[in-house]
Specification:
Elements (H helix, E strand, L loop, with lengths): L9 H11 L5 H13 L13 H36 L4 H15 L2 H15 L15 H35 L2 H8 L4 H31 L1 H6 L5 H10 L3 H29 L1 H4 L1
Helix pairs in contact: 3-4, 3-6, 3-8, 3-11, 4-6, 5-6, 6-8, 7-8, 8-11, 10-11
Length: about 280
Amino acid sequence: MILAGPDALPEQIEVITKELGLDKPIISQYFIWISNILMGDFGKSIINGYPVFKLISLKFVATLELAISGLIISLLIAFPLGILSAIKRNGIIEKFTTIFTALGQAIPTFWLGILLVLVFSIKLRWLPPSGRIEFTENPELAFKLIILPAFTLGVYTASVLTRFLKTSVLEILTLDYVLTARAKGLSEWIVIIRHVIKNALIPFVTVLGLQFGAFLGGSVVTESIFDWPGLGRLMLQSIHTRDYPVLQGTILVVVFGFVIVNLIIDLLYSFLDPKIRY
């Protein structure tokens, strides 16, 4: 592939093979790769020779921006729906929440993304259909460009988080210390805010962390639909072009992102639950 096709001369193939270290045993190749990674050398792209680390650095900012935006949207939806549907049982809010969580997990992301583009970009012309620019260049346009992909990414997560938060709040509401707080004459909202929500957040935060980690590497479809230049799209392109150094580097960054997110979640546990801190 580097030599542009199957017609390369054997001498050329031998030179490239030695340059890449492919003439060495697999174990040796692996340890050379690991040692280079530890020194910050992710290799170069087979397609254009661009350093992989710099390429990933450029794309990671876009993915992180989209992931945080999608997470904010999912939290804005999940918090009120999850808490209110647990408190107001058998009401309109709970029925709406049940329908939303079912549809949110059933609707394919690619279908939702295309539908949003058809409605808000082509039909109503309220928002641009695709692309990304820096917020420093044009804040208003940058904000409009991120709305549709962030909403597409956030709806599924919002449905998952809503279901977990509702279940967690319902479980906490039946515990003895909540009944004691009510017996003391505290108002319902004080009981919910002081005693229920904080304890209900522990399983919620676990799912939240996993979903955010998935955003870092699992937004391939969303980035492709909206032409968003992030890690997911880079990973898909590297698979299509068989650009293995870029693919290896991207997967490594995504896995490292999962590790960091899980570490942050573990630290949050100690803040939410004093028993864990002890």
